[in-house]
Design brief:
heterodimer; A: mainly alpha; two-stranded antiparallel ribbon; two-stranded antiparallel sheet; 21 helices; B: mainly alpha; Four Helix Bundle (Hemerythrin (Met), subunit A); 6 helices; about 0% strand
Chain lengths: ~500, ~160
């Protein structure tokens, strides 16, 4: 690699460099300001703002960073910077902004304020890992970034140690994580053994031009899917989700349910598209190599994921557990969009994810405000809350309606594009199953509303008063959910712009 | 069977037997010591495959560092040698079926696949080549591993701290 290459590569990974620099700054600031940690969240915000500007510039400024030297002909690099990656990085950045405010308000985090430096340093570690996952096109980089993300999130899941559930969550996350990343590493080693390269584009060329044992390749692909499936919590790698979501601090739970899933989806799509797809046809369907049947695998996994997520959510009495299963179900819907294996399906996934970000984080935020006051996350304790705290009640109702996918919220638009993509791809049966799932989901979301509004408030029902900054924040979260439900053109246009994955 | 094969099978046997003792032994000191032989055997296989650097690192880091640390930890913790570790097995039948299927798939895969292999040239030391690659083509991975270690350090400190009310 010559220096010219290095400079152009470095200019392509600016957001990642910013995040790394601010990670170090936070560590140093934590040491210097030993007594007063109030500065650290603002330092984190500054880092996020700079990184977000750089990410937005990446939508148009694309290219390959860190190419291999001339031994290889393709000259495509380890990191692929493109609009698709930028979209997911944007989702990660937005949820990080929200996370900073979440942590600022959360009682759980306030109790361990002394360790705020560690907290933000680990979050920046997560962001760095997720950024590289969204644009990695080399199996080694994928693995290292995945470990960076996982290591930080194991610790964060057990960050506040005031309840034993926290440590339990952390340990469970670690054990499941270690197993699935071991499986993934094994899959990577088989890929390397078959093709002699770790670069996704070279694997693609190799698969297209050589005769390969399909059994081995399928085995390796499934193993790699195990690592990704763990991140997006798809069946059968979802077992950690409810326990970790229930035990972790709410801010981290919310973050895991959006940002870490976003990174997982970005990785899944890029992995399939870069390593297995030869070209797009005129309608935007991907011409996939016939070496492994991704279509069937994804459909099977997504149907299992959404059905299991929805059916289990019915029985949950803890609202964090319920939201955990609901997030499993949502991952199922989005996997269906990937399973279409076309640009149209991908647009649907991007739109869905963008809306899911706001509605899921909004719901978690209100659950956190209520838990701050009442100290409870049981749905039974929500009885009559709609009367004593009407603003929170109405806001939570709107977020739930969006999660169900009813008009006029953005959730409906997300589901609509998904179903259109399914129907256009002639996957009618699958679309019907997904539709039935939405009906099941209606029940458990409405159940929360029933507790809030149809059960009379008793003397014990507490009034959760909301201070003004929180009201503004909730309105800020509600606005996209409601506005994009009616005026969704810009999001769709932006998503259509961002489906371009470099490398074909 | 050449001498090479015999040495390989000896190391493989060492790894398997000591790994088996590691997971079944009820005494934590015995487990730790047999884990040392497992790691040592793996290092031997690395060297046998011509990955001399990897073999040395395996010895230095795992056998020399992590394991000694673990044994010291065991020795310095009171009473830990007296604690019976739960090594009983539950769900034997599903486990056997699962592992059997997995092992069967793996074996048939290993035998049938035409791996992408290259004829071994004169074995040279790998340290120079690895060092060069790490600072040129894989410089990004190298730097990222630095961040990974930093995050692991912070994480370890965070896990180890005690929460004061």
């Amino acid at each position: 690699m010559n220096y010219e290459n290095l400079y152009s590569s470095l200019s392509l990974i600016q957001p990642e460099i910013t995040i790394s620099v601010f990670l170090l700054l936070i560590v140093v600031a934590d040491l210097i300001f030993d007594k007063n940690k109030a500065l650290i969240p603002f330092l984190a915000l500054a880092g996020l703002i700079i990184a977000s500007v750089q990410v937005i510039l990446q939508v148009t400024n694309t290219g390959y960073a860190f190419p291999f030297s001339d031994v290889y002909l393709s000259r495509k690099g380890m990191v692929t910077v493109d609009a698709f990656g930028a979209f997911f990085k944007l989702i990660i950045i937005i949820s990080s902004f929200i996370l900073v405010y979440f942590s600022y308000v959360s009682d759980e985090i306030k109790k361990s304020e002394k360790n705020l430096g560690e907290y933000y340093a680990l979050i920046f570690g997560m962001i760095l890992g997720m950024f590289f996952l969204s644009s990695a096109s080399d199996l080694i980089l994928i693995y290292v970034a995945l470990e960076l993300l996982s290591l930080s999130s194991y610790v964060l899941a057990g960050f506040s140690k005031l309840r034993t559930r926290n440590s339990e969550a952390s340990l469970k996350y670690l054990i499941y994580g270690a197993t699935s990343s071991g499986l993934m590493l094994f899959g990577i080693s088989i890929f390397y053994g078959l093709s002699g390269t770790t670069n996704l584009y070279e694997i693609n060329t190799f698969l297209a031009s050589h005769q390969i044992n399909h059994l081995t390749l399928s085995f390796a692909s499934i193993l790699i899917f195990a690592g990704i499936g763990y991140k997006i919590s798809s069946v059968p790698f979802h077992f950690w989700t409810p326990d970790v979501y229930e035990g972790a601090p709410i801010s981290i739970t919310a973050y895991l349910s959006v940002a870490s899933k976003a990174a997982g989806f970005a990785l899944l799509v890029r992995f399939i598209k870069s390593a297995f797809v030869t070209s797009d046809d005129s309608l935007g369907y991907w011409e996939i190599l016939s070496v492994f049947d991704w279509h069937s695998l994804l459909i099977l996994v997504s149907i299992l994921t959404m059905t299991l997520g929805n059916l289990t959510a019915l029985w949950q009495n803890n609202i964090k557990r319920m939201l955990a299963y609901s997030s499993i179900a949502h991952a199922g819907y989005m996997l269906l969009g990937v399973a279409v294996l076309s640009n149209q399906g991908l647009v649907a996934v991007l739109i869905y994810f963008f809306f899911y970000l706001f509605m899921n984080l909004g719901a978690f935020f209100i659950v956190m405000l209520i838990a701050n006051k009442t100290g409870s996350e049981e749905i039974d304790d929500y009885n009559g809350l709609g009367y004593t705290s009407p603003f929170l009640g109405v806001a939570l109702t709107l977020f739930m309606v969006a999660l169900i996918g009813l008009p006029p919220t953005a959730g409906f638009i997300g589901k609509l594009y998904l179903f259109i993509a399914l129907v256009d791809a002639q996957m009618i049966t699958v679309a019907i199953i997904a539709l039935l799932n939405t009906v099941i989901a209606l029940y458990y979301y409405i159940r929360v509303l029933k507790h809030m509004f149809l059960t009379k408030s008793t003397v014990e029902t507490q009034t959760v008063s909301v201070i003004r900054p929180n009201i503004i924040f909730i309105i800020f979260m509600l606005a996209p959910v409601l506005i994009f439900g009616v005026y969704f053109g810009p999001v769709v246009d932006f998503a259509k712009r961002c489906v371009q994955i470099l490398g074909l | 069977m050449s001498l090479y094969d015999i040495i390989f099978y000896l190391f493989a046997l060492l790894v398997l037997v000591s790994a088996f003792i590691t997971v079944t032994s009820k005494n934590i000191v015995h487990s730790a010591f047999s884990l040392m032989f497992t790691l040592f055997g793996v290092a031997g296989i690395y060297v046998l495959l011509g990955a001399d650097f990897l073999g040395v690192v395996q010895l230095l880091v795992y056998v020399g560092g992590i394991l000694i640390l673990m044994i010291f930890g065991v020795m310095m913790t009171n009473e830990i040698t007296n604690v019976d570790i739960k090594t009983g097995t539950t769900q034997v039948v599903p486990a056997i079926i699962g592992v059997g299927l997995f092992a069967g798939a793996l074996t048939s895969m290993m035998l049938r696949t035409g791996w992408n292999s290259q004829p071994s040239e004169n074995m040279d030391t790998t340290t120079y080549a690895i060092g060069k690659l790490l600072l040129t083509e894989y410089v990004l991975i190298f730097e990222l591993l630095g961040m990974l270690l930093l995050v692991a350090l912070i994480g370890a400190a965070s896990v180890a701290r005690k929460e004061k009310e």
